[in-house]
């Protein structure tokens, strides 16, 4: 539950930073991207949870061969899907935003934010699957610690890129 909260914190911090330091259009662009981002994060978390069930079964049965195969397969699927979704997402960002009726006045900024977000898809997939693997074998602390540290780094990078470098909406996307 804490992990879900911290993952949602990324987009919330982006909204707060652009709302306070960039302007209403940037805030509207991040808000327009939020449903798409939430669907993506939810999909990855669900897929990772499914993989953790298989991994924990092998771990509990002390089947090292099955455990190794399921971990490798899960990480391979995460990497391949991460790469595929990175490239597809970058290209279909405008379409996705049109499908959810993003206003024309914020479309350009929303597309920029979403494309940069999709650029980090591989890392997001690997993190979610790696965390799931660790939780499946009984280590729930390290994934949470990593997520907490990365959330603090995200806040710092958002502020640095927006306030100091003045990158606007791209700054919060790159920070994330």
Task: Give a verbal description of the structure.
This protein is elongated. The protein is mainly α. 89% of the residues lie in helices and 0% in strands. Helix 2 packs antiparallel against helix 3 (64-99) and helix 4 packs parallel to helix 7 (169-175).
Rg, Cα atoms, Å: 17 Å
Oligomer: single chain
Q: How much strand content do the residues show?
A: under 5%
Q: How many helices does DSSP assign?
A: 7
What is the H/E string?
HHHHHHH
Topology, number of strands: 0
The end-to-end span amounts to 20 Å
Low-confidence stretches: none
Q: Could you report the average pLDDT, rounded to the nearest whole number?
A: 93
Instruction: Indicate the structural class.
Output: mainly alpha
Overall geometric form: elongated
Helix content: over 70%
Quick one: biggest sheet? Answer: none
